[in-house]
Amino acid sequence: MGDRAAVVWDESFLAYDLGGDHPLNPVRLDLAVRLATALGVLDGVDLVKPDPATDAEIERVHEPAYLSAVQAAPMAGWDVGHGLGTADNPVFARMHEASALAVGGSLAAARKIASGEARRAVNIAGGLHHAMRDHAAGFCVYNDCSVAISWLLDNGFDRIAYIDSDVHHGDGVQDAFYDDPRVLTVSLHQNPLSLWPGTGRPSELGGRGAEGTAVNVALPPGTSDPGWLRAFHAVVPSLLRSFRPQVLVTQCGVDTHREDPLADLALTVDGHREIYRTLRSLAEEVSGGRWLALGGGGYELVRVVPRSWTHLLATVLDRDVDPATRLPADWVAHAAGRAPDWPLPATMSDDADVAFEPWGGDAQTPLDAAVRETRRAVFPLHGLDPDDPRD
């Protein structure tokens, strides 16, 4: 098996543009790749240029009638149904083509791993985890995460773990594989009582025959790096060791950041970097190093997303960037025009301490209560003791 990491990127990804003042602005992707390039993270890397996914590939997880609606939407106007033409998912020119390319990017990454050409692959333009079988949702037209997982299941793998670190519940992926015991979906997100889409409770465990393969950690608003990492380490490693996935697929949304305008967690760029490094280590331990990393949410477009996803690219490539690294002057000059009223950070760090106390089972805090609820719901279904900190 080859050890080279694959990075999927093409400027055509920027055509996934919901327009106007929509929060999901493709400038975040452009600035992330520019920053990674300026810091030398992508030096010598042959970027993988994706092809758009075919209709048949998209129909792995979406209904044909829904594809027809997406394809017709730009000519049909705004009243097209299927979640299209809403404030979250406005219709835009060549919407199907741009959405199919995002799916194609994640499929290209999956193929690199399945073929053995790479153990790791990353598509920061992917991670559109809210799209459902027959409708768009949460800025997501097609669910590239689910298509890639479905393809992997038909191409040599029968145990896949999906970890979602976005601030919003990974509902579309959970829904796609809720009844499939071959896929473990784990989502750590802000408590659904306080944030859209309102799903992702610990009681959502998987369908008949797949009980325990849907896992949800509902984090209290205000959770910061140490709390997030405490919860992650209390739940995820034990489940991965029990499930023994052959591939780890991760949705690496960065809308958990304390500056993100759409949610209320309080992570930092330093916390994101630590998450990626933890995921890399877990992939080495449990899935033979096979790790497919995807983008996701993140709406502080200039100050946060470019730095966090540069750390993601660097982690996948084993070119970890020192948090103290200063932002290149040329990049700062280019990016400043995108945030004229908000000063840019000076380095690749928010100067945050990410150290955390491991979960011990007895702390009386809202965070620990959330961890206990998830462990008690899921761990027995995997033969683990929910009250034993060693599990």
Automatic annotation (TrEMBL):
Gene Ontology MF annotations: histone deacetylase activity
Domain Histone deacetylase per the UniProt entry, residue ranges: 22-315
Keywords, comma-separated and alphabetical: Acetoin catabolism
Keyword Protein transport: no
Pathway(s) per entry: Ketone degradation; acetoin degradation
Keyword set includes ATP-binding: no
GO biological process terms held by the UniProt record: acetoin catabolic process; epigenetic regulation of gene expression
Family: Belongs to the histone deacetylase family.
Protein name from the UniProt record: Acetoin utilization protein AcuC
Organism of derivation: Saccharothrix espanaensis (strain ATCC 51144 / DSM 44229 / JCM 9112 / NBRC 15066 / NRRL 15764)
